[in-house]
Design a protein that fits this description.
Blueprint (H helix, E strand, L loop, with lengths): L9 H9 L3 H24 L6 H8 L3 H7 L3 H19 L10 H18 L1 H12 L6 H26 L7 H25 L6 H22 L5
Helix pairs in contact: 2-3, 2-5, 2-7, 5-8, 6-10, 8-9, 9-10
């Protein structure tokens, strides 16, 4: 995992920028404008439908500036995914910062899940679009997408381990790993449903039902492994 690379704090980034020369600061700013413009366009049109010319128009910077920062559109996609992942993970609570009370901890996790779906629609939409455009995306860029999802899975595993801990399950690690993938699939579906029919979608209720279902499944799995007398 390379999560640490994606989690610099906002203060740390400001300090880093302040330590640069004026020319370097302008370079950082132009790169940010390019990445933001590409992220918005790719979320709207997908990777294949986004051209360097369109990124140039949206960012207000010449194509030459884009190619100075990124050698190809694939390299730009990788930067977009890295930046989107960093912002997404920064919006999620750190495990160590969660309340110690089990009920409050669960509440905080659901609040964070719902907020992340609402706060980062462009990034999450882009993840799904890239998955659907696999034939048009190079292996390196697709690898970035997969790595981001693996990082999300690792966070979900750790959260599930906290939620399942009171059940004192045998083989809890494997159960958390299995359920983490199910949670990610449900999250994908909840995000799509929220955009197709927001009036009928209730993300929080979906996650609440999922929590009850996972708890029941965990107890069932645990009971199935008990040796018969």
């Amino acid at each position: 995992m390379r999560t640490a690379r994606l989690r610099p704090t906002a203060d740390a980034r400001r300090i880093t920028i302040r330590g640069l020369s004026r020319r370097q600061q302008l370079g950082v700013e132009s790169r940010r404008r390019i990445v933001d413009a590409a992220a918005a366009l790719m979320a709207e049109r997908g990777f294949a439908g986004t051209s360097i010319a369109a990124v140039s128009q949206r960012s207000g910077l010449p194509s030459g500036s884009i190619y100075w920062h990124f050698e190809s559109k694939e390299a730009l996609l990788a930067a977009v995914m890295e930046e989107g992942a960093r912002r997404w993970f920064e919006a999620l609570p750190r495990i160590d910062d969660l309340p110690t009370d089990p009920a409050e901890r669960i509440e905080a996790l659901f609040d964070a899940s719902e907020t992340s779906l609402e706060a980062h629609p462009e990034f999450l939409r882009l993840l799904l679009l890239i998955a659907l455009e696999r034939r048009d995306v190079d292996p390196t860029s697709l690898g970035v997408v997969r790595r981001v999802r693996e990082q999300a899975l690792e966070r979900i595993r750790r959260m599930l381990a906290l939620l399942l801990a009171p059940l004192k399950l045998r083989d809890a690690g494997r159960i958390a790993d299995e359920f983490a993938r199910l949670v990610l699939v449900v999250s994908d579906g909840a995000f799509v449903a929220q955009h197709i029919d927001p009036e009928q979608s209730d993300v929080r209720r979906s996650f609440e039902l999922l929590r009850h279902a996972l708890t029941a499944l965990a107890r069932e799995k645990n009971g199935a492994r008990r040796p018969s007398r």
